[in-house]
UniProtKB/TrEMBL annotation:
<protein>
    <submittedName>
        <fullName>Squalene-associated FAD-dependent desaturase</fullName>
    </submittedName>
</protein>
<dbReference type="Pfam" id="PF01593">
    <property type="entry name" value="Amino_oxidase"/>
</dbReference>
<feature type="domain" description="Amine oxidase">
    <location>
        <begin position="21"/>
        <end position="434"/>
    </location>
</feature>
<dbReference type="InterPro" id="IPR017830">
    <property type="entry name" value="SQase_HpnE"/>
</dbReference>
<dbReference type="InterPro" id="IPR002937">
    <property type="entry name" value="Amino_oxidase"/>
</dbReference>
<dbReference type="GO" id="GO:0016491">
    <property type="term" value="F:oxidoreductase activity"/>
</dbReference>
<dbReference type="InterPro" id="IPR036188">
    <property type="entry name" value="FAD/NAD-bd_sf"/>
</dbReference>
<dbReference type="InterPro" id="IPR050464">
    <property type="entry name" value="Zeta_carotene_desat/Oxidored"/>
</dbReference>
Amino acid sequence: MARLDNLDKELNIAVIGGGYAGMAAAVRLAEQGMAVTVFESAKSLGGRARGVAHRHAQLDNGQHLLLGCYRDTLRLIEQVGGDLDADFLRLPLQLDLHGHFSLKAPKLPAPLHLLVALLRAQGLTWRERLSAARFMLLLRRMNFRLDSDMTASALLARHGQSQQLVEKLWEPLCIAALNTPVAIASAQVLLNVLRDALNQKRADSDMLIPRLDFTALFPARAAAYVKRHGGHVLTSCAVERLLPHNIGMEIVTKRGSLYFSHVICATPAVTTARLLRDFAELAPVVAQIDALAHQPIYTVYLQYPPHVTLPHPMLGLHQRYSQWLFDKGQISGQPGLIASVISAEGHHQALSQDELAQKVIAELSSEFGFVDAPLWFRVIAEKRATFACTPDLQRPAQQTPLSTLLLAGDYTRGDYPATLEGAVRSGILCAERLKA
């Protein structure tokens, strides 16, 4: 643990927050042989991507998936002991809006796999399929770069993408990638994701659905890795205040104060702003954080009898409350457990949790003919799940005006929206800055 008598001789680094950003930073620091201590206020690690136990079932506070292009996240999972073949159900790129639209990428080199998938897509006219393929080719010629940012809907309208194309293809992709409605989403950030997922290797567009809960997938393993390398991971240990010190930074907790040469603050944006608000020199950073709007993610878990299954492990619904459905029986060996994901803002926010669950139950009965009632349901609402990824958004840099304080989190500056990969990249960048 950090002591005053050695702070002037070596780096002793505190990481506040045990989510994906914080644990990525901690692993990278531990790998480099640096002394690191992680502070996490909750009992379990993972932040907004963590495991949740309910009625003897293992759930997540949000049903996420990874893409094959999430190289930093996947590499770190392997580094701390994960097995990607065992930990994930890997599916080729596919969009299936039950009964309305379907697209599945064949095993061809990128970007040919996507162009063939678009031209074979079901639920679109031939003209619409050709229009979508031409649009992707145009983006490739543009190197997925815009002269100036705009909303995704404005970009799609400019290039003749029909309303049906938007509703069945581009909006579901935008919501899944940015958790922001297409009408207000940053076109450039959407193109950044399309560039990395669809334009290089075919496997980059693969969808990787975790078979483990999100705490077990990386943060718990990362904590063990950090401890093996001489670090410390403190759970149920909230940081109450940060105070400048002449040889670094003082961290105040209910357990007392500890002193560190540097601090990486990897808490959610709202918590970070609270911790930084007393620093006059950080007022511009706090103002940037305060200016961020947020978008919710609701996950409705429904435990049906074990024989109840969906046609596919993952599929979508068209213009329903439920956007994406995950069959946990096919994914993680939890028969009868269905997860319904509702991303971004919408009418569902006006419903009570019971009302929303009943809407989802009715949809599943209508779409798939389920006659069994669920044995139980659980609604998990992350009302500030992500920042709203809007055009030309000014996001705070990882390095603050204080040389001893850095910020990690999916909301910090970067090419990506609020994804696990964006969070992990920010944590790695903070660790690399300290190494330098």
